[in-house]
Amino acid sequence: MGSESERREREVWESAARGGEERLGELLASGAGMGLRDGRGMEPGHAAAAAGQAGALRMLLEAGGMASAKTADGSEAAHLAAEAGREECLRELARAGARMSARDDRGQGPLHRAARRGRLGAIRALLEAGANPLARDMEGSRARDVAAGAECAEELERAEREEERILEWTRRLERACEGGDAAGIREALGNGARAKGAGGEPLARAAESGSLAALEELIGAGAGRDEMEAAAAIKAAVSSGRRAALRRLLELPGAGERALRGGLRKAAGSGEAEMLMDLLAARRERGLEAPLGDALAAAVIAGEERCARRLLEEGAPARGGGGEPPLNIAAREGKGELCRLLARHGASALDAGKGGRRAEEAEGGLRPEGGAREASRERSQGWGWARRTKSKKSSAGMGRPMRNPWAKSQPNSERA
User: Fold this and answer.
1) Digit-coded pLDDT (tens) for 336-392
2) CB count in 10 Å sphere of residue 287
3) Residue 100 phi/psi, 5° resolution?
4) Which residue in 153, 289, 292, 357 is deepest, having the highest Cβ count within 10 Å?
């Protein structure tokens, strides 16, 4: 069975390299693998890109082939297509989201490869797809520095000047965003500034300024579709207390689970209860499952009782979600009201965190105001096993709590 599978994978590789699309489609439909590599580490997608088989490459990408897979020397499919001057393959890769400025083991991007071989058409296709002409390899060379032929060098020189102009306007855009200057943003965007900077900076800076007009200018230019960009902006809005900006940001396509999770943690830890409620409302309305445990931990650490209560009412796990239980944190920080609040929502001083420490041990008897023991007693009333843990006289006449009956399942936690 293994040999048959290998034979089919080899046939996939060969069909991709020679453009046998009909047979390739049959093989992919039957579940044949695409992971076979030759001696240079080339997968079927690499072979198709190097051979200029755009149709086969499209089929592989649609079937789940990785555009970012690397060969033995760190080349991606875009490097091989650029080096061979396969313009249509480069366009297919760009449509699939391949990185047009990816670097190989020598720090070279596809643009370096195309320039070195004098592939003018490939250079133009790469620049259209967003390749950076200012990128340098490990020797400090740009693509223009290694270009074969005056025409390729001139094309790259023009691209460098244009990229530098765009970068200057993007810097102006960021300054305008910082000041909430909607007119300045409009001017910068009109001159080619990128609405999505490194790490989503323009949108985050506009959110921090609180200017809704500035936000609308950026959103109209396509900002906020990426989740990382939206997450940075949501955190900035919460940090600066810009509730109106936050509400607008929560409407963006990029405001998904990851973005909400970071915003919830930031709002809970900074005591922004109103913005926390906005974030929780967006979570409910959009049916998202952004975890609440880390937001609850942030609220407990900061002593934000109101935020902690709201999170618990929303379903945050009072006993923790895998890390240190919130009750341990509250006990260690001496936050008695939070200890009692957590106990009312199901937390127990007998819960152990990653290090095996329970809330009573975290409190260490040094902070009676922490309330961990009180919370434990409050939580355990009516439980038979808990009543047995109360202090009794032992046969030696010593008064001490009985051993936790669950401790056997955690032999190492007692010694942590």
Assistant:
1) 899 999 999 988 766 544 444 444 544 443 343 445 455 455 444 433 333 333 343
2) 6
3) -80, -10
4) 292
**Residue type (1 letter), 48:** A
Give a yes or no: residue 288 inside a domain.
Answer: no
CB atoms within 10 A of CB 321: 14
The CATH number given to whatever domain includes residue 41 is 1.25.40.20
- Decide if 131 contacts 100 (C-beta within 8 A): yes
State how far the Cα of 175 lies from the Cα of 35, in Å rounded to an integer.
47
Q: Examine residue 6 and state whether it is found in any structural domain, yes or no.
A: no
**CB < 8 Å & 24+ apart, contacts of 5-11:** 5/32, 5/33, 6/36, 8/32, 8/33, 9/33, 9/34, 9/35, 9/36, 10/36
Inter-residue contact 94 to 100 (CB < 8 Å): yes
Number of domains in the chain: 2
Could you tell me if residue 358 is left (phi over 0), alpha (psi between -120 and 50 degrees) or otherwise beta? Answer: beta
Q: Kindly give the residue spans of alpha helices, DSSP state H, lying in 179-272.
A: 182-190, 201-209, 212-220, 227-239, 243-249, 257-270
- What's the farthest any 2 CA atoms get from each other in the chain? 98
For the whole model, what pTM was predicted? Answer: 0.69
